[in-house]
């Protein structure tokens, strides 16, 4: 019975936690925005009926209530079935990702409840292809965008849907390439195994693969449609995106799904590159026997990292201007994709060379304790090289002057 | 409960041709009626187009499917049994909906749902990598490309005359074959009345699949799969890689040729903007 009950309890905790976190991160985002722009932000809504403000902690509840009470307006010209389906697809895909994302390491066994084994803080612990699952679901999320744009039956929504789906598809490739270096170094697609590898060696992948992390992070920003990649939010220039024709709760579902994508991205960045629950001298490594204190510390460390990455997302929002659409796609195809391939090839060679049977033993003899530094160094050199290559080749420099030199009527493409 | 034998039973047509258990003649007769009903329903949906034939077709096909479902016998443990047949229905029924949909975009969506059903069946059998690869490659890439093309080319769908199949005889044969295959699967996978409690897929499992199912259910599933692919099937993998690379080079060279039309001879101005 506990075979079924334990996952259900975990799913309930995660759904509740993620939805609440999404609501309160919206409040945090507004407060951070206000702080950056030297305003106060929403700070008034506290306990209803009293004058207690509680730093505006009641704001998400009030916002949710307002959204629920809003008129559920559906334009007459839409394709109703798909118009309803689109936000549902997007939301389910965004939430289902959390089945493979660990929220800590493990809990000690609870014999009182009949649980004799340590409990993994993960809904699907025996799932061996966790990272592919994340990618499969992010490719399902594209359906929400395409269908939302198409079902709205409006030119602005349709073009917005095409823009956003092309963006999501384009950035999935560098996202995967940035990740592959980590998978190569770990030899597993499981997120808990990746964290255990970082905890055991004590070297976070951010230190040994900085270029991979940069590529992954930029692509994760684009996948989550955060600034500087948030074209659907351009009301003035592009008349919004795929959700222009949506209102009320359906719009909120779209926006919440995008917010959850940001939370997922922060979890992934923390787990893949920032060591997950590991912190030097504080959490032990994967072999340390688990106690309640240790489990709590690990959860605290992981959540602190996730929180820091989310704060970084919010600061980026107020620090960079938005990309124009062609620049956005050129960045994916002409910069991040080649750099991702370069990163993968160099890392594959490095990992092979440092294998004990090739040059690993020699490196150990020669450098001893400094070995860790020696094995990071190529990664950082690669980062510098990548920076200089991009600066030299300028792959996304564009010339915006109108072309007057081409006679379009002579071109065979005009047929 | 080892479900992987199921996969082999379904994949291996020679297994299906020789019935697995001595299913009694009355079951076979009822399944034949069910197949005929389902085929007739599909034919009405595909080859005729009026409101009443469509409704009748839906009714007939649903009747056939229900009749087939009534021939399934409950096998312990019922959780596994129910899960398998629900997922199988999730793979087969959307496929039928895909071929009878009049609107191309809905067809593509039903296709994607059917692929999700297939992926979940593979996951159910323990083939984790294969299931998710189906999801990423087919549902995530190929059907999305279909959707792009359909939406750009046919915002309003075909004309009415294009929405039905005109070749009534080939349509009939295809409907019969499709529902016959489904009926054959139902027949092959329902246990013989005498051997109650014996699961047919265990009987159906060829002796050689023992090692493979061990690999499928191994905890380090992907590592095992990878070592098989890159030792026993290395040549096939490399050939597939070369083929994909050729396709990529072809696409790039095609674009480069298209780009040439836009260049002005003797202009001398280097342009980097997009065409």
The gist of it:
The complex is a heterodimer of chains A (415) and B (275). Chain A is mainly α and 415 residues long.
Tell me about this structure.
The complex is a heterodimer of chains A (415) and B (275). Chain A has a domain at 70-323. Chain A is 64% helix and 1% strand. Chain A contains 14 helices and 2 strands, in the order αααββααααααααααα. In chain A, α4 runs antiparallel to α5 (155-186), α8 (210-223) runs antiparallel to α10 and α8 packs antiparallel against α12. The N and C termini of chain A lie far apart (68 Å). The model of chain A has no long low-confidence stretch (mean pLDDT 83). By secondary structure, chain B is mainly α. Chain B folds into 2 domains: 4-217, Up-down Bundle (Four Helix Bundle (Hemerythrin (Met), subunit A)), CATH 1.20.120.1200; 218-260. Chain B contains 12 helices and no strands. Chain B has helices spanning 4-11, 13-17, 25-47, 51-70, 78-100, 104-124, 128-153, 168-189, 200-204, 209-216, 221-231, 234-260. Mean pLDDT of chain B is 73; it is low at 1-22 and 193-211.
Keywords:
heterodimer; A: 415 residues; mainly alpha; 1% strand; B: 275 residues; Four Helix Bundle (Hemerythrin (Met), subunit A); 12 helices; disordered N terminus
Task: Describe the protein's topology.
The complex is a heterodimer of chains A (415) and B (275).
Chain A: H1 2-36, H2 59-69, H3 80-96, E1 106-107, E2 119-120, H4 130-151, H5 155-186, H6 191-201, H7 205-208, H8 210-223, H9 235-238, H10 248-272, H11 292-317, H12 325-353, H13 356-367, H14 371-393
Antiparallel strand pairs in A: 1-2
Helix pairs in contact in A: 1-2, 1-10, 3-4, 3-10, 4-5, 5-8, 5-12, 8-10, 8-12, 10-11, 12-14
Chain B: H1 4-11, H2 13-17, H3 25-47, H4 51-70, H5 78-100, H6 104-124, H7 128-153, H8 168-189, H9 200-204, H10 209-216, H11 221-231, H12 234-260
């Amino acid at each position: 019975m506990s075979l079924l009950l334990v996952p259900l309890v975990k799913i309930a905790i995660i759904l509740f936690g993620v939805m609440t976190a999404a609501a309160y991160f919206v409040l945090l985002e507004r407060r951070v925005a206000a702080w950056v722009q030297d305003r106060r932000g929403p700070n008034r809504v506290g306990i209803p009926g009293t004058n207690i403000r509680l730093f505006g902690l009641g704001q998400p509840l009030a916002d949710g209530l307002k959204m629920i009470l809003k008129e559920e307006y559906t334009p007459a010209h839409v394709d109703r079935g798909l118009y309803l389906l689109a936000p549902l697809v997007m939301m389910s895909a965004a939430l289902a990702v959390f089945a493979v994302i660990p929220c800590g390491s493990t809990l000690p066994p609870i014999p009182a409840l009949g649980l004799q084994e340590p409990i993994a803080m993960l809904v699907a612990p025996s799932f061996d292809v966790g990272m592919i699952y994340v990618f499969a679901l992010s490719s399902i999320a594209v359906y929400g965008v395409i269908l939302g744009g198409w079902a709205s039956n409006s030119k602005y929504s349709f073009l917005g849907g095409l823009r956003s789906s092309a963006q999501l598809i384009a950035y999935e490739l560098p996202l995967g390439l940035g990740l592959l270096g980590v998978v190569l170094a770990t030899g597993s697609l499981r997120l808990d195994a990746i964290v255990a590898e970082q905890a055991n060696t004590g070297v976070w992948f951010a230190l040994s693969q900085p270029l991979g992390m940069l590529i992954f992070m930029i692509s994760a920003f684009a996948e989550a449609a955060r600034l500087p990649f948030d074209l659907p939010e351009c009301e003035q220039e592009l008349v919004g995106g795929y959700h222009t024709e949506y209102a009320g709760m359906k719009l909120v579902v779209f926006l919440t799904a995008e917010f959850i994508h940001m939370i997922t991205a922060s979890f992934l960045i923390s787990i893949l590159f920032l060591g997950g629950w590991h912190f030097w001298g504080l959490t032990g490594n994967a072999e340390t026997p688990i106690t309640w204190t240790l489990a709590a510390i690990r959860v605290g460390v992981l959540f602190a990292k996730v929180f820091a990455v989310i704060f970084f997302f919010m600061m980026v929002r107020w620090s960079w201007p938005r990309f124009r659409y062609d620049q956005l796609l050129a960045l994916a195809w002409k910069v991040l994709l080649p750099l991702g391939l370069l990163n993968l090839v160099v890392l594959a060679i490095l990992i092979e060379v440092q294998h004990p049977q090739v040059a690993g033993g020699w490196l150990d003899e020669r450098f001893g304790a400094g070995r860790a530094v020696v094995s990071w160094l190529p990664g950082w050199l690669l980062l510098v090289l990548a920076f200089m290559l991009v600066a030299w080749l300028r792959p996304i420099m564009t010339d915006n002057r109108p072309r007057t030199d081409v006679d379009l009527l002579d071109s065979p493409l005009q047929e | 409960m080892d479900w992987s034998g199921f996969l082999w039973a379904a994949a291996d047509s020679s297994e299906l041709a020789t019935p697995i258990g001595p299913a009694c003649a009355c079951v076979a007769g009822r399944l034949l009626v069910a197949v005929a009903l389902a085929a007739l329903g599909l034919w009405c949906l595909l080859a005729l187009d009026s409101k009443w034939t469509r409704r009748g077709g839906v009714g007939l096909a649903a009747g056939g499917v229900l009749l087939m479902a009534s021939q399934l016998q409950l096998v312990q443990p019922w959780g596994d049994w129910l899960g398998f047949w629900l997922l199988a229905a999730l793979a087969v029924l959307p496929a039928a909906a895909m071929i009878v949909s009049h609107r191309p975009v809905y067809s593509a969506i039903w296709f994607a749902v059917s692929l999700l059903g297939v992926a979940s069946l593979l996951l159910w059998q323990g083939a984790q990598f294969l299931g998710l690869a189906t999801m990423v490659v087919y549902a995530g890439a190929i059907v999305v490309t279909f959707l792009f093309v359909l939406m750009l080319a046919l915002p309003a769908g075909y004309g009415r005359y294009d929405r039905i199949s005109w070749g009534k005889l080939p349509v009939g044969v295809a409907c019969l074959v499709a529902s016959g295959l489904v009926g054959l699967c139902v027949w092959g996978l329902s246990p013989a009345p005498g051997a109650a409690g014996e699961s047919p897929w265990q009987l159906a499992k060829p002796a050689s699949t023992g090692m493979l199912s061990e690999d499928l259910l191994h905890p380090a599933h992907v590592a095992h799969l990878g070592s098989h692919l890159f030792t026993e099937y290395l040549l096939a993998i490399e050939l597939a890689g070369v083929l994909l690379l050729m396709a990529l080079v072809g696409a790039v060279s095609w674009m480069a040729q298209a780009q040439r039309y836009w260049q002005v001879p003797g202009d001398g101005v280097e342009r980097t903007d997009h065409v």
